[in-house]
Structure formats: structure tokens, C-alpha cells
Amino acid sequence: QITLKESGPALVKPTQTLTLTCTFSGFSLSTVGVGVGWIRQPPGKALEWLALIYWDDDKRYSPSLRSRLTVTKDTSKNQVVLVMTNMDPVDTATYYCAHRPPSAPSLKYYFDSWGQGTLVTVSS
Amino acid sequence: EIVMTQIPATLSVSPGERATLSCRASQSVGSNLAWYQQRPGQSPRLLIYGASTRATGIPGRFSGSGSGTQFTLTISSLQSEDFAVYYCQQYNNWPPEASFGQGTKLEIK
Questions:
Q1: Minimal Cα distance from B101: which residue of A?
Q2: N or C: which end of chain B has fewer CB within 10 A?
Q3: Do B96 and A60 touch (CB under 8 A)?
Q4: What is the mean pLDDT of each run of 10 residues along chain A (124 residues)?
């Protein structure tokens, strides 16, 4: 059974850097084809894909947020970390990490297991 | 950038009836489309991928169809637990990215 759980600060100030950790179980990020993605959802709004990291350390970012995002993995700890710089109140959202199945077409991603999400509020 | 448009924003249907939700892509995505269900206070759940393949554990009353730019999610006989928000997501474009529609809220009539 695949499980993922996001952790990080609930409140950050404008201009600060946000660091979120996704801790997962039930799969290995060293398995060919596996990926972990980050998706966010502002309160009452739609989902927005942010980033994805593959088993081979290939990384993909949303074009609109690329300059602010960094995603890394620690395979031995079963963790993926997302760093977002220069936080703004419009970045207030629930942040999810999710599993990209290895059966997905090459270089394409959908997500078959999601974490519970963590709400991050950006306010001074 | 591929823009996904979901129509309608809200759909009112009675329990036991059929619901048909639409998703349109601004350019062809082939069959690289997924549908998710999000119940209030919960994380999204994958229903359909590849436009028409049900994910593991998804009941047979959920079906997906379409290709190119027009897609449909059909729920054949609505159960109380099906009233939720549904999102489509394309995963076709290059450079690879994932873009979601704005969602359709399925509410009880």
C-alpha cells in the first residue's frame, strides 16, 4: 500500500522560503519509472501542478514557477523535498505530494496516490 | 501551454441518475487525459487515466471517453458518495507538464 505524507511549516512570511518534505512508503524512488510530484490547491480553487522528480533524478517544473522551485530526493530516507523561494500571499494553498506510477507513458505523468496535503498560509 | 476547460462549473443531478461531465483541451492531447474525484476535505483520487481506463478499485459506474480535445466522464447511476468535485488533467504536451481543468462540482439536485 502506497502512502505519502507532507510536512512543513503551516505559516510563512512573505519573501521567505518554504521547504516541504514528502515522506512516503510502499514504493521506492529507485524503481525505474517511478516519480513523485507536487501539486497545490489554493482554498476553494483548482489544482495546480508544480514539480516532479523521477527515479533517475530527472526533474520537471511548472514553467510559470520554475525560477522559484527546487525539488530533490533522498532515496535512502524515502523522502522528496520541495523548496519554493520568495513566498507571497497568493501562494497560500494546500500542498500535496503524489506518486507517479511507473506504468505511465514515458515522460508523462498522472498521479495514482496522493498525500493528505498540508496547508501553508503566507502572511505577515 | 494547454488549457483545460471543464463544463459546466456546477452540475446538479439526482441520486440514481446519470451524470455527464465534459472536459475540453485547447489543443490535442491524444488519449493522455486523467480524471480525479475530490470529496470535501479530502485529497484527489485518480478515477480514470488514458482517457478511458479505470484506476484500481474504481467502480464500474465510472467511465471515461474521448480523445484529442473532447473528453467525457460519465457516472452511470449516482451514489451519495459521488457528489464531489471532478478534475480533468492532461499529460500530453512537451516539455512535459501536467495541467488541470478548473473542476466541475457535482451536487445533489
A1: A46
A2: N
A3: yes
A4: 98 98 97 96 97 95 96 97 98 98 89 98 97
